[in-house]
């Protein structure tokens, strides 16, 4: 049985159910309408005749009640939906209302009559000289109702027939694309993954077609991916091997051959234990456990031991879930190990540089303190003695006073130079006022020393509470950069910017508009300024950038991450 026929049969059954429900409702409505009409006619007729009987009784001169009623009924004729009978005292019928002539051409079937006919109602009135009976008769109303129902039945039958034909034709037209879908499925079943469906007319069928196209595209993509995966396994630089639960190798890709020196013919079927150096235990993989990027060692065919990163995953039977082997991926990490060793040594050098710089700064601090506390006192004493001598010998011995004045001037010069040396060795403001105030003091001093140059200093962010090592290193970088610019660049402007962002990272920029330089041409074996700044930044795990071109000025950028500021 075709889908079209089954759908049409279902629609027919639904139409029949609908028509049956409508028929039941129609019959019920008709029965109620007939009953109400017959009851109304009976009641109206009874009330009218009761008035006639009362009138005859109140006026005996008109004759007997039966005679008056008979005359009235004969003049009245037929009353709708009612039969009137008049009997004398001997129960003989003396009057019967005429038969109904309404729609006598209609002959409703007995089943319809049985469904809609109401219960017969009989009303009896005793009168003088006889008995009157009023009997309900719904035949005329039933014939009238059957005319309307018969018309509806014919219309419903015609509509039922036309709807069935329309549904059958519509289903045939709508299900026509199903054949195309079945054809495309048959092509795919035969292995043609390029089978696609064009745009179909009905939205629902078209949605099925588009779903089929997406499924075909997905299947084609997955098939292509599997093919590419096979190529990747063959062409990857990672050595891949598969072995069973007994450790016997069943797959060996070209990268494994290049790494270990065994061809597939030489290694497949042999135990993977031949790759493990003596004295080293094999990495066991429990059921459904995975090893990822585990650093270990393996031995090649020529006996060379190589460092590898090992990843192991269980090979699971998809049907019963049993572990049937292991998939091993190995990557040569010899270069990475060498890089890690170089990084370790670099870290050691960084720590050593940091330690050396810390000791140098400590020695500078001690030396500055000694110069200030010891030599400063001596110079001050010499100056004091020379001033006293000059004052006492100004008149009696002018020559001695002049020599003493020369000593005072020399002492003042020595004192000023000593303070400059102390400031170069260890700025005192750094310990007391912090980095920002120290830089402001240094910039003011540089401005006095180089009045033809313009210095700008800009701070932003939270720069308080920097640790001592970070503060002194940043100060030394600024000091070295400004000294180089003042001595060698011929710059007229030097801009210094120190900022701390919301994440806590520090950024330092020193830029000048001097003649610039070629950084690659600088001989750092003779000029240690740039090298010293780089080493300071590296000791703080920061980044150092130098941007300079001939006649284009020089810009030094330093970035210190937040974790190095604790």
Would you kindly provide a written description of the structure presented here, covering whatever features stand out?
With 566 residues, this protein is an alpha+beta fold. The protein folds into five domains: 3-169, no CATH class; 177-231; 236-332, Beta-Lactamase (2-Layer Sandwich); 334-426; 435-566, Heat Shock Protein 90 (2-Layer Sandwich), CATH 3.30.565. Helices cover 55% and strands 18% of the residues. The chain is built from 14 helices and 14 strands. The chain has helices at 3-58, 65-76, 110-116, 139-174, 176-189, 203-235, 254-260, 264-267, 334-393, 398-425, 428-432, 435-449, 468-489, 529-539, and strands at 82-88, 93-96, 122-127, 130-136, 239-244, 249-252, 291-299, 305-316, 323-332, 454-460, 493-500, 506-512, 543-548, 554-560. The strands form three sheets. A five-stranded antiparallel sheet has the order 6-5-9-8-7. Strands 10-11-12-14-13 form a five-stranded mixed sheet, with helices on one face. A four-stranded antiparallel sheet has the order 2-1-4-3, with helices on one face. A hairpin with a 4-residue loop joins strand 1 (82-88) and strand 2 (93-96). Helix 9 runs antiparallel to helix 10 and helix 9 (334-393) crosses helix 14. The chain is elongated, with a radius of gyration of 59 Å. The relative contact order is 0.04.
